[in-house]
Amino acid sequence: MFDIEVAKKEIPFNRESLESTLKSRFFYAPAFEAYGSVAGLFDYGPAGCAFQANVVDQWRKHFILEEDMLEVDCTMLTPYEVLKTSGHVDKFSDWMCKDPKTGEIFRADHLVEEVLESRLKGDQVARGLLSNANEQAAEDAEKKKRKKKVKEIQSVKLEDDVVKEYETVLAKIDGYSGEELGELMVKYDIKNPGTQGDLEPPKAFNLMFETAIGPSGQLKGYLRPETAQGQFLNFNKLLDFNNGKIPFASASIGKSFRNEISPRSGLLRVREFLMAEIEHFVDPEDKSHARFKEVSDLKLKFLPKETQQAGSTKPIEVSIGEAVSTKMVDNETLGYFIARIYLFLIKIGVDPTKLRFRQHMANEMAHYAADCWDAELQTSYGWIECVGCADRSAYDLTVHSKKTGEKMVVRQKLDEPKEIEEWEITLTKKLFGPKFRKDAPKVEQYFNELTQEELASKSEELKNSGKITFKVKGVNNDEDIELDDKFLTIEFVKKIQHVREFIPSVIEPSFGIGRIIYAIFEHSFWARKEDTARTVMSFPPQVAPSKVLLVPLQSNKELSAISADIAKILRKEQIPFKIDDSGASIGKRYSRNDELGTPFGITIDFETIEDGTITLRERDSTIQVRGSVKDVLKAIREITYEGVSWADATKNLKVFASQQDEE
Ligand SMILES: Nc1ncnc2c1ncn2[C@@H]1O[C@H](COP(=O)(O)OP(=O)(O)OP(=O)(O)O)[C@@H](O)[C@H]1O
């Protein structure tokens, strides 16, 4: 029996060969090649487009339809104020360091990572554990026709404790601040790898593309770096659409833009990419999930923060139920999404043995986040974050609501009224007009936005000194303003509450479609043992760019007429197909489509003219069966769209021994 997993392992994975297939079959290519291209920008060709569209379609079905999510499509152009409020203007940056002599710029964390990894490799060479590292590096560079000289791996043995130290730094590489990276560069003597020249200390570089909206140039804006902010700003409309009830989730699929310091590794780090993001709004006091039971037994590989802290990358395998009950994963809703992400990735062709969930360490996570896990996929470039899944708490809605004055809250009628005590401010508004004139509304807004803690402290100030001092942006030249108790009172009052009002927490699964697609390319790609030039993309039929290749055995009027008839049926049934009636040998025609991942081949031969039967070929095993057009198309439909196995779908078809696959 043919086993695809065994076949994939027989010939070691070769990235060069994959890249050549992706290029020759035009899955994607660098954009603007005629103009020398720009790093980090890619165009997708027909095969890439169809594959991406199918992945997105599956995403929509798996998440939006299955979970009843509310889809929105928000603009990519985003005004400055929105991203200032969200924190992106000040914090959405990476650390770069410059070589003042050559002008070269490096991303600091990547540089530290590369240098330490190369030293560890050198240590392995010195210990006799790795023999041909340099030959391999030189060969790779030669094949890629890299202009830059390859940094040679020095065979230098390191002390055992240095090895351990390097490994610990590498396990934590995503979490260092700029200052810490600078310290590591000094400590480990890290320089420009090409020239050995000194580098300037790391500086923050904001990754957003800036632009001006409108002809005056006055309204500053950015191309969005994520789709999330548009979703948050539609929260009230979506809540209303959902009849005021939570939990609910919004979802969005669209392009995002990041001016990466050094785009690299093909589709893995680019400057414009498709994201699919979910914002699941949930009660902060109840993060249970109604459907958690459905996934709780699912076993997954986790790399919790404690493991990484100890310098290890060995994952632990437990069920998501256990991960949540032991509090390794913060709550059920987060756990539910982690499991659903896993199921989605496996469905579209990710190799489950190359998938793990890595927890963010405290210093890697945004200060407001409660917990965060990345789905990482193993590729020839290492483990790559492809989906982030974070509990962002109530941060985003809180900051936008504070900034705009628009309340973004859920109101829940209480079963029984509750007595509460809270701070309440009363403004003597008739005094505000004469004192502040046109700025009076701004000052009033400032007071209306004070939190309970701020009101408590202002009340204390008023009690102790008879006045309060504060600043309001754009009022009194941004200088201190003083008001005494004629203008306001702040009291702690008892109230009967009939409605509970709260800002929901947000659980955010965020998918980079390009990264996932590239990882699937690697996970699906293999070469046939009999002839390694014959490579195959073993995509699951559901996401394969095209489903069927129609091949008339020879150029012949009768055969062409039958294939046109079958094409008509396929078109009517909306099953994507291609006809290959070129003069190439049938083996070659199949082989070209194996590279495109087309799961089925239909051959129309002279027997078809006699009895109306056709052959159906399965891409991976090359097994062929024979049956009527109706039965073969039924099998294709069942396997592709209904998840039926090949064995079950074809059990009534005749096995067909043929030499068609040979040249
Ligand atoms: N430059 C990029 N090119 C392609 N995909 C990206 C890029 N940056 C982010 N993504 C995708 O978007 C998802 C969510 O973005 P997020 O902000 O969590 O990434 P990130 O932590 O900034 O990624 P990294 O640390 O690798 O730069 C990622 O999981 C990834 O799949």
Task: Note the total helix count.
Answer: 25
Residues in helices, as a percent range: 25-40%
Major β-sheet annotation = 9 strands, mixed
Shape: globular
Strand proportion: 25-35%
Q: Overall pLDDT, averaged?
A: 92
Number of separate domains: 4
Query: Strand sequence of the main sheet, in spatial order?
Result: 3-10-11-21-16-15-14-12-13
Question: What are the distinct ligands in this entry?
Answer: adenosine-5'-triphosphate
CATH class of the largest domain: Alpha Beta
Based on helices, strands and strand pairing, what is the structural class?
Answer: alpha+beta
Oligomer: single chain
Let me know the number of strands: 29
EC number: 6.1.1.14
Subunit structure: Homodimer.
Protein name: glycine--tRNA ligase
Catalytic activity: 2 ATP + H(+) = P(1),P(4)-bis(5'-adenosyl) tetraphosphate + diphosphate
What this model shows, in words?
With 663 residues, the protein is of the alpha+beta class. The strands form 8 sheets. It has a 9-stranded mixed β-sheet with strand order 3-10-11-21-16-15-14-12-13. A 6-stranded mixed β-sheet has the order 25-24-26-27-28-29, sandwiched between helices. A hairpin with a 2-residue loop joins strand 22 (525-528) and strand 23 (531-537). Helix 6 (108-126) runs antiparallel to helix 8 (160-171). The longest helix has 22 residues, at 46-67. The radius of gyration is 30 Å and the shape is globular. Adenosine-5'-triphosphate (ATP) binds at residues 258, 260, 269-270, 273, 275, 385-388, 510, 512, 514-515. Homodimer. Its EC number is 6.1.1.14.
